[in-house]
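Example protein as discussed:

>
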Amino acid sequence: GKGPPPPPGEKGKGKGGKAPPPPKAGAKAAGAAHDDAARAKSKAKQQQLAKLKPLVWQKLTYAEEGTIWAHGDDDDFEISKPMLETIFAWGASGTRVTAAKSEAPEEAKKSLTCSARVLSICIGLHSLRHLTPDEIRKAILRLDAQALPLTSTDLLLAQDTKSGQPTVLPTPEEIEAARAYVESGESFEMLDDASKFLVAVHDVPFLQDRLMLHRFRGCFGAQIEEIRVALGVVNDALREVRYSKSFASILRLILKTGNLLNDGTSRGDALGFKMSTLVQLSQLKQVASKDGETAVAAAGPTSLTLVDHLVSIIIEQRPELLGVGEELSSVRPAARIELDDVAKNIQALHAEVRRISLSAGKQEPSPEAKPQDRAEDLKDDVFRTLAPNFVASAQGQLAEMDAMLAKTIETYVDVACFFGEKRSTRPQDRPPAHEWLGFIQTFLRDFARSVETYRTREEKEAQRIRRLKERRGRSSLPAKIGDATPEDEEGAREGQNQVPGARQDRRRAASLGTCRDANPQSPPQSPQEHPRQKPQQPQQPQSQPQSQPQQQHRQQREPASSPFGSRRRPQLRSIPQPVAQRGPTG
């Protein structure tokens, strides 16, 4: 028969089967709505979680018993989540604060210049950030030193090194833009900080000259005092060199030594020398001997120079000349001051004063400014009265500096001619003052070094002699034969003569030698005698014969003769020998 019928689920699977019918439209719409709701809920949850700034920490996923975290959250603190959202919310997280900001967005500020100029002006005004643009304007009009210190004034007057344009003050184009904005009647609050400054100062009369006067007036006194001190130091140095007796004596010593060195040459028989010669003294060093050593053993690791030799002569003969460095104490600072630089500084001050004088002569307010602005400027402006008074005072002080500089140059010419320089109207025919004083300063430096070297060498020599005397005090002989002097040898002989019995021992030794020479037939010592047996010495002739015990007793009491002291020579006992072993007697 037929098989069982197919199951209901497999019906229509074959080729002849039909596809399942599509779902109804209502069911499809319900599923899509469910998915959108789930997606919106997940998105809202993510927004709610990401609304606050996270706290970065290392989270513990379990709390062990015995730790602080095992007790759980027992403290009854109440934390307001809306407050956390207000304080720690992200930028556009939907909080009240950010929402308020988003509802009223800030309008963009207007600028009267380019972005590069805005940055440059803001950097220059950083030191004046505590002042508003109107306060800066009033400080410039009144030339207030407290509100406008010199550092801030320098920043306002700064210029670009390449173009020469001001970096903070308004340019002509910016002045026109600021004037047009003022005439338009728009609010200043719509401008950025740099543009507000440009509008505030664009109509200040002689803005740059005014600030230059303010800066110049603040530093003029210090510059005049600096020039006055420099010229005073040079005058003091020239006066010390001219009237120093110690320096004159040293120059005559150098002249005499140089003539001895140059004797027989074209350089000899000199009547004087120029100050440039002082630099060459330290270059002349002593020659080495044939064995390669220097002529002076105490010269140390380096050879002696002519300055060292002059110092040794001065210490031995004229030690009072060693204080020449103290007499010429102003030479060192004066050698660093160039009169040409001083003259240039004075001329620069003259140029600044002339510039201010010209500005003060045409101190009228800008014709383009409004009448009310001109009235305010004239009312608060002190430039009209301050500039002429300052110019008159500055010109008087500069005239004094000109006279002082001329007097210093004249003094230098007189002193240089006194020491052998030629008097000429052309400055290039003689060395500058700082160079001429530099020759003397170089010699004083070398002279001081030589004096210090000489004293160090003397201290080492004194220490060597002291150690030598300490060694000689512990021994009667000198430490080295070469170190012994005739006085030391005489003292050693006297010390030997003072030893008890030393002189008698020398006489006895001499007499024994004479007796030995007089008896050449004395029998020689037998080779079979005991090696420690002392040979029998011949006795001195005496007026009365002495017995053998008395002679042995005397030999034991008398010390042995020694030219080096009273050291006793040990007595050797003779060992009796058998009669059969003795040699034949003659």
The first helix runs from residue 25 to 49. DSSP finds 20 helices and no strands in the chain. The radius of gyration is 56 Å. The mean pLDDT is 74.
